[in-house]
Amino acid sequence: MTITESAAPPVLSLRGITKNFGAVAALADVDLDVGAGEVVAVVGDNGAGKSTLVKILAGVYRADAGAVRFQGEEVALESPAQVHALGIATVFQDLALCENLDVKANLFLGRELRPFLLDDVAMEQQSWELLRQLSAKIPTLKVPVAALSGGQRQTVAIARALLGDPKVILLDEPTAALGVAQTAEVLNLVERLRDNGLGVVMVSHNMADVRAVADRVAVLRLGRNNGVFDARSVSSEDIVAAITGAADNAVSKRASRLAAGTEES
Amino acid sequence: MTRVENAPAVDLQDERLLAPKTLGDSVRAAVRRVRDGDLGMLPVFGGIIVIWTVFQLLNRTFLSSTNLVNLSFDIVPVGFLALGIVCVLLVGQIDLSVGSVSGVSAAITAMVMVQYGQPTWIAIAAAVAAGSVIGWVYGQGFNRFAVPSFVMTLAGLLAFLGVQLWLLRGQNAVNLPYDSNLVQFAQLWFVPAWLAYVFAVLAAAGVFAAGWIGARTRRAAGLSAVSMRLLVMRSALILAALVFAVYYLNRTRGVAWMFMLFVAFVLVMHYVLSRTKFGRSVYAVGGNPEAARRAGINVKRVYSWVFVLCSTFAAIGGVLAAARLAAATQSTGTGDVNLNAIAAAVIGGTSLFGGRGSAFSALLGILVIQSISSGLTLLNLDSSYRFMVTGAVLVVAVALDSFARRSRQAHGRG
Q1: Which of A41, B31, B167, B382 is the most buried (most CB within 10 A)?
Q2: What is the domain range of residue A137?
């Protein structure tokens, strides 16, 4: 499957999203486009508005202003359930899993089959299909989620997001709490989602992860857009410069100082 | 792809999985589960066996048919309270007022029947409805005004004790007419012997049928399922135990209808909690309310329903307490009733921390509590000893729960 990004209309498109918390403008006039089969990384420093953007896209917060187009139609993002029904699934940083319930129960939480006589067999079957599709390495569905590793939990959370057959999936810091091998597993998963034709929005702090899987990198700085880069051609320095605001900053100064052989110190 | 005859089931394909293949494997797996701290109902069964053995050694009449029949009556009123407590504990909350609510309900039953001369069913309906309303008020206070359930129901404990005294208008006790159906039900009505055996057979057959149909559906879906042999053994064991229990109780008065009512409620609640969407959401809210909310569960409605269920069960318990005593008194539902109900739920294996437990813990837990009470009474020891022993058992149960919980975490069983 080949999708030329420039030709395909974006599946999700934000224009002029604004959100104020009291006197603080958390997001001001933010634009973002996500195409089908594309991974867009959203990066930014602390307080750049990444989490606010995720919560607006997830329907947890309502934007004060701005327009959202999803699959070519103007939509309102009103509540988590409504957004999920639209086809935008969110995996929160804290995963929001019930640790006392087993994998299957978590995957179908709130969407159980046959409400008055739970169809455990069908749910287990579909769970396995979904997890196999993701090449997930979860040996059994009968253990409570508390017994799984961080990477496995992340997989369960992503699998749960995929259950409603969404068009766009939002991943909030999917690798923040993971080790090296588990991070690689999750990045493989992100690539598989893209290959399945989903639009993926990945919020991350980790520049290496972003460069590993993203097609485009959207930088937020102090609640505003600060450039969208092609992940293949941009250098890490450029992204860092956009994140911190200018070439004249602590990170780039330190980098140039190290490059110059620390003669100034 | 054609399915090879002995290809592993869909859920057993991971090579890291230690899947039981033979009966011996299943037994070893069960032993491993227990060692890792996944105790389930084991401690309470063990507790019952120890307690029954000790009391039988101390007093030969303890395990007599007569005493066990009495026990089967005595566990029911507080058992209903414990069933309600199980529900609130599962969502990680507590209701300290079940005793007072049962007292109010007993008073309402007696007053409506005796003072106002209304038919029994109206009295029962009024009492149970009052319980539901109380639960609804708790739910509102908890959801809308964010009053912690501990405080809310502590206030209820006092307030409804007041209501109970006010309803009784200073009378120490209001006696129920001894010939009313309600009193007869709670003291004299027994299941005919043949019907009791039919129930026992039906129960075992039901367990077998459910297991067999479940296993067949799972195999058809390509999933692993319990072996026929295990299924037959389990059902046969249940059949033997139930038939023996019925036979033994029938040597004297038999199986009480009131006890059957309680068992029926426990079974219904077990079904609701384990096989319905509502039950799943109860466990989810107890495990992680925020995750439940984000999964689209109406968390506030779950809390409301659980408080209503708890108070309603407490009210039913109150009606039956009045019926059992043939009177509503100022002390109905007071004293140690509250704590017995909570202790029963915890001893039965329902966690105080939410999200873990089952309806059966009400039945088994209250059996432990009432056995102690009955055994000490037979030994002519007064309530001072009963309080001390029950307190000690509660501490042991909670300590075991915490210990098993740590062990579970260490062994990756949640």
Answers
A1: A41
A2: 12-234
